[in-house]
Each structure stands twice: as C-alpha cells, then as structure tokens.
Structure to design on (394 residues):
C-alpha cells in the first residue's frame, strides 16, 4: 500500500511537471522589459519568448509576432527551444512507461518487470526535469549578466527579478491550491486506517477502511459497503481531533487562497503595490497555518496506528496499518507550507521609493524675461531634483 501510494504521488508530480514544461515552452515571458535609470517609459512592456515576442500597451492591448528566423535569436533561446521540446517528448515517454509499470494497471503481469519499468520511468522523468532546468537557468544567467553589462543601454536590459517575483507568487498559489485540494481529499477519504494482514490474520476476502466520518468494508469481489459513524464519542481521540483540525484547515485554506488572489501581482483588486505585498505575505502565513493544521492530525493518527501496531496486548485482528489518506495529508500539508513560504517572499517596497506605476511628473514654470536684457539670467535656475529612481521594476 505504501509503495503504491508513493508510485501514485510520483506519477502525479511528474504529470504536474510535464504540464509546467508545456506552459513554459508556450509562454512568451522569458525576458521582460526592465524599467531602470532613465528608461521610464511604461506605456508598453516588451515580452520575449522562445517562439515570439509581444508588446503590451498600457491600454491592455497586446500584439505578438513570431520570430522570422531562428538564427536571429540568442544562443540561450536557441538552445532553450530544442531542450524544452526534447524534455516534453521525453516526458511523454516517461508517462507512458509509468502507466505501464504502475501497480494499478495490468499491462505487465510480472511484478519484477513492473518494478523495472517503473524505475526506468522515474529515471526518464529525472532526465526530462534536467532538460527543463538547463535552458531556464542558462537564460536566467544571460539575463542577469546582461543586466549588469555596462556596455548595454538601460533600454536594452531585461529584468528577471520582477518576472521571478511574479513566477514565485504564481507557483506558490498553485502549490497552495493543490495542497488545499489534497486537504479536502484527506478529510473525505475513509482510508485513514486499513486492515493489517499479519500473523494469523490472513483472511483477505475483505478489507476494512476506517476514516474520520465513516468506515468501509471492501469485498474481494469489488463490492464496497460504507457506514457513517453513529456517535462521534465512539471514535478514538486522534480521529475526533482529526475531524475538527482538517475541517478548520480547509476553511483557513479558503481564506488564504482568497487573500493570495486579492494580493496577486496579476490582479487589480488592490491598486497599492505595498498593500498587495502585505496581502500576499498575510496569505502565505495563513496558508502555512492551514498546512500545519493538516499535518498535525495526520501525524497524530499515524503515531497512534504505529503505537497500537506494536502493542503486545492487541491481537492481530485489531491491528491497523497506515492508510492512503495519511500520505495524501502529508503531501497536502507540505504543499501548503511550501506555497505559503513562496508567497511570503513578496516583500513590500521600501518607504520613500515610488514604483513606476505611481510615479508623477510635475512641470516647472519658468517666468518669461521682462526685457531683452533680462533674457540671459545672471545665475542658473535651480535644477529640480530628479524623480527618476535608480532602479524600478514592474
């Protein structure tokens, strides 16, 4: 059961990574315009991707153009095209192999051959991941190196810091959402405790599942009968606490996701950038609390199961093993913690510095000379203090 759950978790993570590689291959936001120095024209933003570049106007209109020539691209983008496409193809083969070698499928009858195929699919998944990481890191290194290149003008620089901040926020929100969905599954699934077939308890015609809301009996014929608990007080203390904590975790997760959505850099619910950053940090803290509330009952129940399993006063028929819902709960809690931590990286701008979106310019009125003799002033007018920030990111 443990091996099967780990295999399903690895397959799910591989599918998520495969979908992510398709997204990064298609999105044109590999490089974005850097607003620094005198480059304060924010009427348009330039995006550069693997296949096209896009110009987004301040009015919201966007125009994209596919590259005319592959050779006109920089070396890092040329290599990124090939490596990302190869990673997607390799990922397809890894998915097919993992399905063939899965313990829940019957494509291969021999268990030893299944294990070898599953191992091969894992190695291919790792290769696909490396093929994705290489072009992404190469392009990021090129962007950072060009950013600090004194031979380039400010208009030629591209920013990866701002894009990385948006990417971390989106990644944190996605991971937190997956963890929240996993928390709902953990709360609903009845597989918190499963029958342990040890010693003389070798009757495998039926399997018992015990959850926090109901218990189920699965027959060897495939039929399943479930029954809701008549009394909450009849449950053990760990399952009673699990009921409350998992429900609270789901509710707190909903609040955290709403706060993350409101404080997202891609949304317009809040105009103030500092307010957005504070909302994002608060959402991260709330989601981390939700993750802890999910991990506590799962770990408590697992500890109780392990303690009872090695209790010499219990007979073999009374012993239970860790169910699949516990592994889902552990994974969900970790995803919520990781997603919340990524959202907490959105730091508000320092006081006294205004972003490019809130920058205001004031015209300076110079009085006209009263006569021709006064046309040449004896002293220079005071130079207005420049409002252009040294570095500004969007």
């Amino acid at each position: 059961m443990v091996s099967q759950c780990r295999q399903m978790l690895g397959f799910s993570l591989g599918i998520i990574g495969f979908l992510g590689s398709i997204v990064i291959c298609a999105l044109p936001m590999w490089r974005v315009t850097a607003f620094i120095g005198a480059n304060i024209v924010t009427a348009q933003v330039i995006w550069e991707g693997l296949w096209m570049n896009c110009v987004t106007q301040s009015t919201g209109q966007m125009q994209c153009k596919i590259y005319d020539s592959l050779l006109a691209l920089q070396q890092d983008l040329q290599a990124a095209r090939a490596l990302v496409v190869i990673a997607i193809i390799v990922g397809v083969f890894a998915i097919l192999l993992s399905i063939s070698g899965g313990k829940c499928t019957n494509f291969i009858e021999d268990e030893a051959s299944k294990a070898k195929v599953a191992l091969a699919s894992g190695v291919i998944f790792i290769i696909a991941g490396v093929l994705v990481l290489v072009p992404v890191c190469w392009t990021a290194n090129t962007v950072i190196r060009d950013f600090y290149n004194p031979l380039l003008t400010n208009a030629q620089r591209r920013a990866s810091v701002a894009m990385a901040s948006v990417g971390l926020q989106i990644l944190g929100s996605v991971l937190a959402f997956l963890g929240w969905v996993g928390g709902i599954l953990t709360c609903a699934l009845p597989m918190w405790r499963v029958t342990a077939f040890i010693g003389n308890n070798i009757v495998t015609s039926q399997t018992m599942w015990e959850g926090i809301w109901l218990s189920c009996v699965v027959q060897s014929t495939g039929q399943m009968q479930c029954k809701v608990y008549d009394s909450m007080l009849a449950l053990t203390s760990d399952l009673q606490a699990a009921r409350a904590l998992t429900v609270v975790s789901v509710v707190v997760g909903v609040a955290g996701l709403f706060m993350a959505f409101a404080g997202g850099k891609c949304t317009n619910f809040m105009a103030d950038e500092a307010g957005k950053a504070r909302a994002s940090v608060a959402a991260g803290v709330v989601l981390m609390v939700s993750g802890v509330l999910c991990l506590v009952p799962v770990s408590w129940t697992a500890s109780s199961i392990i303690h009872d399993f090695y209790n010499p006063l219990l007979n073999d028929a009374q012993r239970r093993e860790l169910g699949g819902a516990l592994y889902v709960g552990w994974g969900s809690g970790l995803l919520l913690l990781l997603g919340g931590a990524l959202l907490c990286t959105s730091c508000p701008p320092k006081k006294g510095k205004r972003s490019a979106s809130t920058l205001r310019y004031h015209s300076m009125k110079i009085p006209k000379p009263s006569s021709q003799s006064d046309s040449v002033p004896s002293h220079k007018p005071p130079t207005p203090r420049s409002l252009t920030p040294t570095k500004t990111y969007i």
Observations:
- The chain has two domains: 1-159, 160-196+236-355.
- The helical segments are 2-26, 75-100, 111-147, 161-188, 237-262, 273-309, 324-343.
- The first strand starts at residue 31 and ends at 33.
